[in-house]
């Protein structure tokens, strides 16, 4: 089947047109917020505070976001999440342009983005299987990873470096706001789905039903737990220390950071396209974990590299290997989980996987101060790879098929 088959479907095409533009905005934001934070305070703690402020509400509200996305129209959830993020970023752009921004205001906008993402992420994950048939899910997930990587890691950071240099961070934040407004417009143009019937259970019941569903399946909870500890080890160091190393060790600017992220985006696109053109692996969990182990180990390359191109090569491997595993994982989850539960399962995925992200950001600054930025990155990659590979061997993880019959779920 052609990789582009899902794009022949109007609603999927609209969804991904809008999301691609908003993800370009996210890439611009990554560069702009890093340089604005380090302009206020040139310490790793500055960007770590923003990551902490963004991740705390995200983790706290994900389970609620998943239950809501299984209860009301997922299209409606996505529209309002995009609109809220557009307004928050527009306000930030005005503050920066006026020269009146403080670090706490960057943290506040990060928190608003975290809240909106807590609802948008499970809604998006569970909406895709409603827009394409099951035999196109692998291609849909390959497009997901390709577009996500091209937009957020390739085009976005490259434009972000230029935007920070040309229109300053205020203009870059304004571009991100416009990208979310465009995404909301695309979602609004999608065919309205049938209105869900009245809910027969409480949100609290729905949340616990999703948790029970995940707990009964080793391949789900085991992978979520693996991501929890792996993300603890490398997300904070990567997002906080990579721009710090570029700025303070290599003495380069925002454009160099954008180039490194863009090369990572090329790797992710290559990985996603190659993965989308092959049949599903016979041993999906071994395939997924093998590639994720390679991706995590390559994080150590950020600490070992002594040049821009060394960092770029590490980014190519990190993002390329991660994308191969992510395409297979997304398709596997969408095939095995009943759609009525998919929003909640996706929210549990995001919630458990990101549960320790606030701690990761909080620990990055003191660990880097004690060990140095480069040693911290090397340690994060090596330990993260060991943890990822270790979870592959917990009992029941490598079962070829889900041995547990689906829980009966009241359709809505």
Give a count of the beta strands, DSSP E runs of length 2 or more. Answer: 0
Looking at this structure, what is the CATH superfamily?
MFS general substrate transporter like domains
CATH class: Mainly Alpha
Question: How would the global form be characterised?
Answer: globular
> What is the residue-mean pLDDT, rounded to a whole number?
84
Keywords summarizing the entry:
disordered C terminus, single chain, mainly alpha, 80% helix, 412 residues, Growth Hormone, Chain: A
Quick recap of the structure?
With 412 residues, the chain is mainly α. The chain has 15 helices and no strands. The protein starts with 9 loop residues before the first helix and ends in a 21-residue tail after the last helix.
Question: Can you describe what's shown?
Answer:
The chain is an all-alpha fold. The protein has a single domain, classed as MFS general substrate transporter like domains (Growth Hormone, Chain: A, Up-down Bundle), CATH 1.20.1250. It starts with 9 loop residues before the first helix and ends in a 21-residue tail after the last helix. It contains 15 helices and no strands. The chain is globular, with a radius of gyration of 20 Å. α2 packs antiparallel against α13, α4 runs antiparallel to α13 and α8 packs across α14. It is 80% helix and 0% strand.
